[in-house]
Amino acid sequence: MKKRLLTGLQASGQLHIGNYFGALKPFVDTYEEYDSFLMVADYHALTSIKDAKTLSGNILEAVRVYLAIGVDPERATLFKQSDVPEHMELGWIFNCLVSVPFLQQAHAYKDKVAKGLEANAGLFTYPMLMAADILLYDAEVVPVGEDQRQHIEYAREAGGKFNRAFETEEFRAPQELILKGVGTVPGVNGEKMSKSYGNTIPLFATKDAIAKAVMSIVTDSSGDTPKNVYAIHSLYRNEDELTKLYEENKGNYKALKESLVEDIEAHIAPMREKYQNISDEEILSVLKNGAEKARTVASKKMETVRKKVGVALY
Ligand code: TYM
């Protein structure tokens, strides 16, 4: 029996190379060793997107990216969260088990409050829906970037609270899988690459758009090696190659950035071609099949969970 793996990404818009190296590539490299579930977290995206057309488009985009980077939908269950209402149901049960101060410690919520922005209740309870995403499938392995570490801890905690409250061993503890060196991919300003920070290099952009983003990488003039350029470059080339390249182009930031553009382009071009040839029909059919498979697992689990909490009377 293969171990079960589950991961997901929010349907929140254009994906960037941080998503790719932090989560998508590690998934593609290992998913066949596991019984893998790959989810588009569309209800999570609703915490920030309030436009139907945008959200629908983002869901298609996320699946198109999964397929373009090489996920075979015959070998992984690829589905969207909203097609499996059991996620919301289990999320609710977890909400009833955890305290408000516990959820107030969540980074995403704290960041929003620190910026003086109003957090909606969906954002506040986000970690419990994510716990449900993982625990519904008894997933043991969850490949993610470093920024999701706390969310996996929350999932373990939610499962533990359920087990203690209902004196059961219903939920097993999931483990995050965070790869060294790509746990936090930096953006063009050196901070974590994130759509909400506006510092991304888009994954499937045109060469011109990639070049524009790379040329905007912030360089400091304190040394010969522009460290922000180097950090991103090291995702594409090994240390020996980079040492030579950066030695030969000492202080020539423009040449180094141009070389980085070429490396990104060479890497992305074949995937981009595939990406452009995936039809909406193909995506919809993948999602429908995936929904059926995911629901089979999730509904079975929820039947037991409902019995354990005492609401299943017939
Ligand atoms: P999301 O959509 O923000 O990001 C998707 C994945 O990309 C990783 N990532 C990064 N990794 C390295 N460097 C970066 N700069 C970078 N930016 C993003 C994220 O860590 C993530 O792995 N809450 C999740 C989605 C989710 C989920 C789940 C994940 C919902 N349910 C269940 C796993 C299991 C999120 O917002 O990821």
Automatic annotation (TrEMBL):
Gene3D superfamilies, sorted: HUPs (3.40.50.620), Tyrosyl-Transfer RNA Synthetase (1.10.240.10)
Catalyzed reaction equations: tRNA(Trp) + L-tryptophan + ATP = L-tryptophyl-tRNA(Trp) + AMP + diphosphate + H(+)
UniProt xrefs under SUPFAM superfamilies: Nucleotidylyl transferase (SSF52374)
Keywords assigned: Aminoacyl-tRNA synthetase, ATP-binding, Ligase, Nucleotide-binding, Protein biosynthesis
Gene Ontology cellular component terms for the protein in this record: cytosol
CDD domains per record: TrpRS_core
EC number: 6.1.1.2
Pfam family, one: tRNA-synt_1b
Single Gene Ontology MF annotation: tryptophan-tRNA ligase activity
Keyword RNA-binding on entry: no
UniProt GO BP: tryptophanyl-tRNA aminoacylation
Protein family according to the UniProt entry: Belongs to the class-I aminoacyl-tRNA synthetase family.
PANTHER family: TRYPTOPHAN--TRNA LIGASE, MITOCHONDRIAL (PTHR43766)
Protein name according to UniProt: Tryptophan--tRNA ligase
